[in-house]
């Protein structure tokens, strides 16, 4: 495991050097690949990132982390974002399950679950959303009934990203009736090989089979896999969602910047596409400004967290702004690359492939982790304290 420099700036420099040396071949997202990286290759790269000090940065050393602060986490994430690195296979484990286990898990659970997340021994998925209970999570119907053998779970989850490749599911289920809304909800760490779990992949618009629906048919979950108390599921879930919306994937602002820079650099490689680019100068200038504002959101958030402040509903602000701004950029980028000449060189082909993939993936960004409408509602009610219209 890499020894971390004490200066946060030096930590970022260390991250940059490591990524330059190790992000090669079919792992790069700024190249067209005849043979994309396999799941095993992606997992191996992610495990290597942890050993290098680029994952589990703020987690306690006792649980496999590096015991540092959000400042080091921010510095590393700047470099991860600027690098054309692949999306994490185990983002749910590291960014959602891990923090909630640290918050409400027992010591035994922390020692059992957390190190295996960082070493990629256990990949996690998130079993929250259901048909009819997506953004309105309190409407979920998946039931958990306590028996002498443990908990018996029945229900269906959908949009369970990566479920077919996961070893554990962070599952939210109901112990009471659906009319209880926020009451009677419980969180579990469910092994995905438990009898009665049926996982079905869903092909997404970009051709991937990452989305899944998961059915639970009389699934027996051991008491030891319950996270927190039976009636604390809602508070734990909302804590997870505030983390997801605000502090997770801190690299996004800088990944956004690298995408914009890639597009501009590629267009400048050919006089014909440079002329196309000039027609979008104002639009891309606005994108650049939005990126800088997003960086400011993240940096301000880090300072607030370091000062001991709670995220709370303010987590909706960066999530809303990022998803809307990035979706707008993706549309502009798709328009530009659609006008590339048919005899374009490799730099343009690489940019075209990346921008088209970004456009397709961006269609879901204003939906996952809470829709734009839900974020606006939270901001209106809980930050601005606006009253409902008469």
Automatic annotation (TrEMBL):
Gene3D superfamilies: Acyl-CoA dehydrogenase/oxidase, N-terminal domain (1.10.540.10), Butyryl-CoA Dehydrogenase, subunit A, domain 2 (2.40.110.10), Butyryl-CoA Dehydrogenase, subunit A, domain 3 (1.20.140.10). Keywords: FAD, Flavoprotein, Oxidoreductase. This is Acyl-CoA dehydrogenase. Belongs to the acyl-CoA dehydrogenase family. GO terms for cellular component: plasma membrane. Residues 231-384 form the Acyl-CoA dehydrogenase/oxidase C-terminal domain. PANTHER family: ACYL-COA DEHYDROGENASE, ACYL-COA DEHYDROGENASE FADE29. GO terms for molecular function: flavin adenine dinucleotide binding; oxidoreductase activity, acting on the CH-CH group of donors. Transmembrane segments: none annotated. The keyword Cytoplasm does not apply. Residues 14-121 form the Acyl-CoA dehydrogenase/oxidase N-terminal domain. InterPro entries: Acyl-CoA_Oxase/DH_mid-dom, Acyl-CoA_Oxase/DH_mid-dom_sf, AcylCo_DH-like_C, AcylCo_DH/oxidase_C, AcylCoA_DH/ox_N, AcylCoA_DH/ox_N_sf, AcylCoA_DH/oxidase_NM_dom_sf, Mycobact_Acyl-CoA_DH. SUPFAM superfamilies: Acyl-CoA dehydrogenase C-terminal domain-like, Acyl-CoA dehydrogenase NM domain-like. Residues 125-219 form the Acyl-CoA oxidase/dehydrogenase middle domain. Its cofactor is FAD. The keyword Cell membrane does not apply. Pfam families: Acyl-CoA_dh_1 (PF00441), Acyl-CoA_dh_M (PF02770), Acyl-CoA_dh_N (PF02771).
């Amino acid at each position: 495991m890499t020894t971390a420099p004490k200066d946060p700036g030096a930590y970022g420099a260390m991250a940059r050097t490591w990524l330059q040396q190790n992000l090669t071949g079919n792992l790069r997202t700024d190249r067209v690949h005849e043979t994309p990286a396999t799941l095993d290759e992606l997992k191996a790269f992610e495990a290597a990132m942890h050993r290098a000090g680029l994952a589990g940065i703020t987690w306690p050393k006792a649980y496999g982390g590096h015991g540092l602060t959000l400042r080091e986490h921010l510095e590393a994430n700047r470099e991860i974002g600027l690098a054309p690195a692949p999306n994490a296979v185990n983002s749910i484990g590291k960014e959602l399950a891990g923090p909630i286990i640290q918050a409400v898990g027992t010591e035994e659970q922390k020692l059992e679950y957390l190190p295996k997340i960082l070493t990629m021994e256990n990949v996690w998925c998130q079993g929250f959303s259901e048909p009819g209970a997506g953004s309105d999570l309190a409407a979920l119907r998946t039931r958990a009934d306590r028996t002498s053998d443990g908990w018996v779970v029945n229900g269906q989850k959908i949009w369970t990203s990566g479920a077919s490749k996961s070893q554990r599911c962070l599952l939210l289920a109901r112990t009471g009736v659906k009319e209880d809304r926020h009451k009677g909800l419980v969180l579990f760490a469910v092994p995905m090989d438990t009898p009665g779990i049926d996982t079905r992949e869903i092909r997404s618009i970009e051709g991937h089979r990452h989305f899944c629906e998961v059915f639970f048919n009389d699934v027996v979950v051991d008491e030891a896999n319950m996270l927190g108390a039976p009636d604390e599921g809602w508070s734990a879930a909302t804590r997870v969602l505030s983390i997801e919306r605000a502090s997770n994937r801190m690299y996004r602002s800088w990944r956004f910047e690298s995408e914009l820079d890639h597009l501009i650099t590629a267009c400048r490689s050919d006089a014909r596409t440079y002329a196309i680019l000039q027609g979008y100068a104002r639009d891309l200038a606005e994108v650049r400004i939005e990126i800088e504002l997003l960086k400011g959101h993240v940096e301000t958030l880090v300072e607030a967290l370091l000062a001991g402040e709670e995220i709370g509903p303010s987590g909706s602000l960066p999530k809303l702004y990022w998803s809307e701004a990035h979706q707008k950029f993706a549309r502009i980028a798709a328009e530009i690359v659609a006008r590339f000449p048919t005899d374009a060189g490799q730099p343009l082909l690489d940019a075209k492939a990346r921008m088209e993939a970004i456009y397709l993936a961006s269609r879901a960004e204003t939906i996952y982790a809470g829709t734009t409408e839900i974020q606006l509602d939270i901001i209106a009610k809980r930050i601005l304290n606006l009253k409902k219209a008469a």
